[in-house]
C-alpha cells in the first residue's frame, strides 16, 4: 500500500482564497481592512525568509502588512514600547513577534505584553488557558493547520488514538489540546518516553514535531495510520552536488509512505498551512474586534 499524499500547498491555497473572499466582504460592508504587524528582531536568515513570505501573502489576500525590522541589539524596553504602540493601534488587528528572539530578550515577557486579542500566534498565556479549557481563543497556527488537514481527511476524529511526538509550547502542547477537543485519545511522547516505537505503533494519527531529521521510520507506523510531519529540517544533499542541501521532515518519508494511509509531505504539507492559518487568525481577530461575523471553518 502507498499512502495518500495530503497536499498542504493546495489546501493552503484554498484557505487563502476563503480568507481573501471574507476580507473583501468586510471591506465592502464595514470599510475595515485587517492589518497584521510582524516584528523581526535581528537578522536570522530563516526568520527573514518566513517574515518575507508572511508579508507577501498578507498583501495577496487583501490585508495590510506592517513590518517592523529591529536591530539585533534592540533593548527589551524598546521592543516592549513598540508592542505597546501596536496594541493601541486600531489599524493593527494581529501582532506577531518572530521567534526565536536574540538571547538578551525575555520571550515570555515579550509574548505576555501582546494584547491577547491581537495575539495571532496564540502564544499568550490567556489564549493558552482559553484553548486548554475549550473556550474561544486565538489558536497557534501550525497545530491549527494540522487539525484542518486531519478534519478534512477524516471528517470526525472522535475516538481516534493520536500520538504527538514533541512537547513544545508552539506545536506539541496546543496540538494535544486541539485533538482532545475533537475527542481523540491523546498521548504526548517526548525524549524521555520509554519504548517510543511501540507507543507510536498503536496510533491512528501520528504528529511528528521534534525537529530531528527523518527520525520516524516506517516500521513505527501502524498500517493505514495518518502521519502529519511538522518537521522542517535542512540536511546535506551530496547527491545533488557539492554543498547542496534539501529539506526533510521528522518522518522518513520513503519508508513511511509504504505503510501509512495518508501522509503530509515536506515540503508542501504543514508548512504552507501555517502561514495560511496566520492569515485566517488575523481575519478572525479583526472580525472579533469589530463585532463582525467570523469566517466559517477557519478557526476551531
Ligand atoms: N518561529 C518559528 N515558528 C514561529 C511561529 O509560528 N510564530 C512565531 N512568532 N515565530 C516562529
Please indicate the count of domains.
2
Radius of gyration: 19 Å
The DSSP helix count reads 10
Taken in chain order, the helices and strands follow as: EHEHEHEHHHEHEHEEEEHEH
Uncertain runs: none
> In the CATH classification, which architecture of the largest domain applies?
3-Layer(aba) Sandwich
CATH T-level topology of the largest domain: Rossmann fold
3D structure, described in words:
This protein is α/β, with parallel strands linked by helices. The chain folds into two domains: 30-116, 3-Layer(aba) Sandwich (Rossmann fold), CATH 3.40.50; 141-271, Rossmann fold. 40% of the residues lie in helices and 16% in strands. A six-stranded parallel β-sheet has the order 1-11-8-7-5-6. It has a three-stranded parallel β-sheet with strand order 3-2-4, sandwiched between helices. A two-stranded antiparallel sheet has the order 9-10. A hairpin with an 8-residue loop joins β9 (233-236) and β10. The longest helix has 23 residues, at 8-30. It is globular, with a radius of gyration of 19 Å. The structure holds guanine. Guanine binds at residues 96-99, 121, 141-142, 170.
Produce a short descriptive summary.
The chain contains ten helices and eleven strands. The chain is an alpha/beta fold and 300 residues long.
Which helices and strands appear, and what pairs or packs with what?
Elements: E1 4-5, H1 8-30, E2 35-41, H2 45-60, E3 64-70, H3 76-87, E4 94-97, H4 107-112, H5 125-132, H6 141-154, E5 161-165, H7 172-181, E6 185-189, H8 196-201, E7 205-208, E8 226-229, E9 233-236, E10 245-248, H9 253-256, E11 262-263, H10 270-289
Parallel strand pairs: 1-11, 2-3, 2-4, 5-6, 5-7, 7-8, 8-11
Antiparallel strand pairs: 9-10
Helix pairs in contact: 1-10, 2-10, 6-7, 6-10
The chain binds guanine.
Amino acid at each position: 500500500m502507498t499512502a495518500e499524499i495530503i497536499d498542504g500547498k493546495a489546501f493552503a491555497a484554498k484557505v487563502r482564497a476563503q480568507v481573501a473572499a471574507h476580507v473583501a466582504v468586510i471591506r465592502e460592508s464595514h470599510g475595515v481592512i485587517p492589518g497584521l504587524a510582524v516584528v523581526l528582531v535581528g537578522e536570522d536568515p530563516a526568520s527573514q525568509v518566513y517574515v518575507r513570505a508572511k508579508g507577501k501573502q498578507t498583501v495577496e489576500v487583501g490585508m495590510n502588512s506592517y513590518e517592523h525590522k529591529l536591530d539585533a541589539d534592540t533593548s527589551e524596553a524598546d521592543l516592549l514600547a513598540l508592542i505597546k504602540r501596536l496594541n493601541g493601534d486600531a489599524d493593527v488587528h494581529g501582532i506577531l513577534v518572530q521567534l526565536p528572539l536574540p538571547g538578551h530578550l525575555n520571550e515570555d515577557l515579550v509574548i505576555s505584553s501582546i494584547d491577547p486579542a491581537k495575539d495571532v500566534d496564540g502564544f499568550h498565556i490567556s489564549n493558552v488557558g482559553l484553548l486548554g479549557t475549550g473556550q474561544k481563543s486565538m489558536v497557534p497556527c501550525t497545530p491549527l493547520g494540522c487539525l484542518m488537514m486531519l478534519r478534512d481527511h477524516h471528517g470526525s476524529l472522535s475516538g481516534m488514538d493520536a500520538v504527538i511526538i514533541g512537547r513544545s509550547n508552539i506545536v506539541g502542547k496546543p496540538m494535544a489540546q486541539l485533538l482532545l477537543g475533537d475527542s481523540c485519545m491523546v498521548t504526548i511522547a517526548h525524549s524521555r518516553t520509554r519504548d517510543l516505537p511501540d507507543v507510536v505503533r498503536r496510533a491512528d494519527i501520528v504528529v511528528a514535531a521534534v525537529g530531528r531529521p527523518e527520525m520516524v521510520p516506517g516500521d513505527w507506523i501502524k498500517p493505514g495510520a495518518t502521519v502529519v510531519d511538522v518537521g522542517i529540517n535542512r540536511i546535506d544533499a551530496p547527491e545533488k552536488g557539492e554543498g547542496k542541501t534539501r529539506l526533510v521532515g521528522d518522518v522518513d518519508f520513503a519508508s513511511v509512505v509504504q505503510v501509512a494511509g495518508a501522509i503530509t509531505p515536506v515540503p508542501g504539507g504543514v508548512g504552507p498551512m501555517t502561514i495560511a492559518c496566520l492569515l485566517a487568525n488575523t481575519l478572525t481577530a479583526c472580525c472579533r474586534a469589530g463585532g463582525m461575523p467570523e469566517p466559517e471553518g477557519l478557526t476551531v
